Amino acid sequence: MTTPHTPTPLAPRFHALADNIERVLKGKRDTIELALTCLFAEGHLLIEDVPGTGKTTLARCLAASIEADFARVQFTPDLLPSDITGVTVYRQNTGTFEFLPGPVFANVVLGDEINRASPKTQSALLEVMEERRVTADGTTHPVPRPFMVLATQNSVDMGGTYPLPEAQLDRFLMRITVGYPAHTDEVAVLKGAGTDVTPESLTPVTTAEEIAESTAAAAEVQVADALYDYIVRVVAATRDLPDVRLGASPRGSVALLRAVRVRAASQSRPYAFPEDVKALAGPVLAHRLILTPEAELRGVTGLDVIDEVLATVPLDSRARV
User: Fold this and answer.
1) Number of neighbouring beta carbons within 10 Å of residue 308
2) What angle do CA 145, 249, 296 make, to 5 degrees?
3) 213: closest CA among 1, 5, 42, 34?
4) 69-92: buried (b, 16+ CB within 10 Å) or exposed (e) per residue?
5) What are residue 99's phi and psi, to 5 degrees?
6) Taking the model in full, what pTM does it have?
7) 252 touches 205 (CB < 8 A)
8) Pick from 169, 63, 62, 70: which is nearest to 115 by CA?
9) Which tens digit of pLDDT belongs to each residue from 73-108?
10) Are 48 and 175 in contact (CB under 8 A)?
11) What is the C-alpha separation between 55 and 152, in angstroms, rounded?
12) How far apart are CA 176 and CA 143, in angstroms?
């Protein structure tokens, strides 16, 4: 095993953010850490759950904990693509065209109830989520770094909504749920109602520049050749199961590797473990799978498929550095 290096600056910032967010979102440490793993991996996050579980609260707390530009877009059926990306206007007094940036030109962008907008508006996010830039009238405009889209959608009350297409789901590094709080946590929420900490009262504990620095540090985490092989075999296995019509693409492999490195760095490890892959395979890969109609009728989910894959794909003992 390689001699441990000096811990990267990611771990203290990671846990400072998690502690700050947990002041509001009590009892959801695992969910918070998944969201932060997505942030430091330079990915985008889809939060899907029933109403009232704290999806928007999580996104607002994360934004409030970072000294960076934040924008919120409430997705509605009449929202236009230019309402998100921006528009080019003609300035009559100067005789020139000027691009007016939309809310997507922020470090953290919250897209609330993203499935309420039309497919045309949803697709306006495709380029900026993948390439970190917006092209308007033939001119490319880069967005600031770091850049993260946090989108929420309800898993119930789907009337009048537009499900995200597979191409856009694949742009999200993770899909997570918040879930209902434990009994004791819900009691604490009731006791503190009206007096408890709110997202607006949080103070930043890090900056956009420090996030970018820590993101670069995560790339230094070592990965054994056998672990690279394991990641590829796990992703490839999702393409060969009878319940899966379309498995995860190589983009899923890259996304899983980025998340694995961040998880290792958040625990002050200079090397990745197979346990990192197993912990993150569900949030990173499940939403990238398209199941057969028969599997969906039986109630099979993407997470069920990932559990099956992890239970069957063999692990080489050399997967540890």
Assistant:
1) 16
2) 115
3) 42
4) bbbbbebeeebebebbbbeeeeee
5) -90, 125
6) 0.89
7) no
8) 169
9) 999 999 999 999 998 888 888 888 888 999 999 999
10) yes
11) 6
12) 25
Going by C-alpha positions, the residue among 158, 76, 70 that lies closest to residue 109 is 70
- Contact 14/121 with Cβ under 8 angstroms? no
Tokens of 214: 């820590």
Assigned token pair, 164: 């995200």
Q: Which phi-psi region, left, alpha or beta, contains residue 320 (left: φ > 0; alpha: ψ -120 to 50)?
A: beta
Phi-psi region of 52 (alpha: psi -120 to 50; beta: other; left: phi over 0): left
Q: What's the half-sphere exposure (Cβ side, CA atoms, 13 Å) at 93?
A: 0
* Distance in angstroms (rounded) separating the CA atoms of residues 214 and 206: 11
Q: How is 65-122 classified by DSSP, letter by letter?
A: TEES-EEEEE--TT--THHHHEEEEEETTTTEEEEEE-TTSSSEEEEETGGGS-HHHH
Greater confidence (217 vs 155) lies with 217
Cα–Cα distance between 9 and 120 in angstroms, integer?
40
The span from the CA of 232 to the CA of 257, in Å, is 10
Helix (H, G, I), strand (E, B) or coil at 152: strand
Give tens-digit pLDDT for 180-239: 888 888 887 787 665 567 888 899 999 999 998 999 989 999 999 999 999 999 999 999
Please tell me the total number of residues recorded for the chain in this structure.
321
Q: CA dist 28 to 21, 22, 178, 191, Å? A: 9, 7, 7, 18
Question: What does each C-alpha distance from 151 to 34, 62, 127, 201, 225 come to in angstroms?
Answer: 14, 13, 16, 22, 34
> 70, 110 in Cβ contact below 8 A?
yes
CA distance to 41, 99, 262, per residue, from 257 (Å): 9, 37, 9
